[in-house]
């Protein structure tokens, strides 16, 4: 279906309805200008919510709209999020907790950075491994600024095995925002020879573990 046909089809579906639509992660104002024609204003209380990282996109989306800025987490909220994502906080000795607290603080309340950091540390066992993570992150911090999320992601990727790196990069060939079925990607990994046999386990189970990791 052509883009203009999709627009008309959606407009017809919504024209006599009261609706709430969430348009997630809009990067360009032009993209929203093109899309908003599909949402009829029936004066019936319908609403469209846009999420974006770009302030100019939010401000210019609609002169009748309201821009709600999400605030960063405070240190207490950041620590709570980190602990929830880490899963087994009881395994942290005081020295590890101190290291983690320093790293969480440098995330400056950015939830995505905190979640990625907790995922990275989850696979690092012991004080020495956590210290190595902190040392690597601190190398890229200039003038006491925050940790760049790209640095955490880079460390997370480098921490993967060669086989998992291949699996991860293979997913990257899919178009952005495409929904990928887990069973489909597992079959493709196996067909490409990315999954390494592990004892007598079924290859599908090994592949599923790789996907979870």
Which structural traits does this protein have?
54% helix, mainly alpha, 213 residues, 11 helices, globular, two-stranded parallel ribbon, WHD_DRP, coiled coil, nucleotide-binding, ADP binding
Descriptive account of the structure:
There is one protein chain. The chain is mainly α. It is globular and about 60 Å long. It starts with a helix and ends with a helix. The chain contains eleven helices and two strands. Strands 1-2 form a two-stranded parallel ribbon. The chain has three domains: 58 residues, no CATH class; 84 residues; 51 residues, no CATH class.
Spell out the blueprint of helices and strands.
Layout: H1 3-14, E1 20-23, H2 29-35, E2 47-50, H3 55-60, H4 75-86, H5 94-106, H6 111-122, H7 127-139, H8 149-158, H9 162-171, H10 182-192, H11 203-212
Parallel strand pairs: 1-2
Helix pairs in contact: 4-6, 5-7, 6-8, 10-11
How many distinct folded domains? 3
Summarize model confidence as the mean pLDDT.
84
- Mass-distribution shape: globular
Oligomer: single chain
The percent range for helix content is 40-55%
* Class from secondary-structure proportions: mainly alpha
Order of helices and strands: HEHEHHHHHHHHH
* Terminal residue distance: 37 Å
Total helices: the number is: 11
Rounded to the nearest angstrom, the radius of gyration is 22 Å
- Total E-strand runs: 2
Give the strand line-up of the largest sheet.
1-2
The proportion of residues in beta strands is under 5%
Instruction: List low-confidence stretches.
Output: none
Major β-sheet, in short?
2 strands, parallel
Domain Disease resistance protein winged helix: 175-213
Domain NB-ARC: 5-86
InterPro entries: Apaf_helical, Disease_R_plants, NB-ARC, P-loop_NTPase, WHD_DRP
Membrane topology: Peripheral membrane protein
């Amino acid at each position: 279906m052509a883009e203009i046909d999709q627009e008309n089809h959606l407009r017809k579906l919504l024209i006599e309805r009261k609706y709430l639509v969430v348009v997630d992660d809009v990067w360009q104002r032009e993209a929203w200008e093109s899309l908003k024609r599909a949402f009829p204003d029936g004066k019936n209380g319908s609403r469209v919510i846009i999420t974006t990282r770009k302030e100019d996109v939010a401000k210019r989306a609609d002169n009748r709209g309201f821009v709600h800025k999400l605030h960063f987490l405070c240190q207490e909220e950041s620590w709570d999020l980190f602990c929830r994502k880490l899963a087994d906080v009881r395994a942290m000795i005081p020295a590890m907790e101190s290291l983690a607290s320093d790293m969480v603080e440098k995330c400056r309340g950015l939830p995505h950075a905190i979640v990625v950091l907790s995922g990275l540390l989850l696979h690092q066992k012991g004080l020495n491994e956590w210290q190595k993570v902190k040392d690597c992150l601190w190398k890229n911090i200039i003038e006491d600024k925050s940790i760049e999320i790209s640095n955490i992601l880079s460390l997370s990727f480098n921490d993967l095995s060669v086989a998992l790196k291949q699996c991860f990069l293979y997913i990257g060939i899919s178009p952005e925002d495409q929904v990928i079925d887990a069973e489909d990607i597992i079959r493709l990994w196996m067909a490409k020879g990315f999954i390494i046999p592990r004892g007598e386990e079924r290859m599908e189970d090994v592949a599923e573990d790789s996907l979870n990791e």
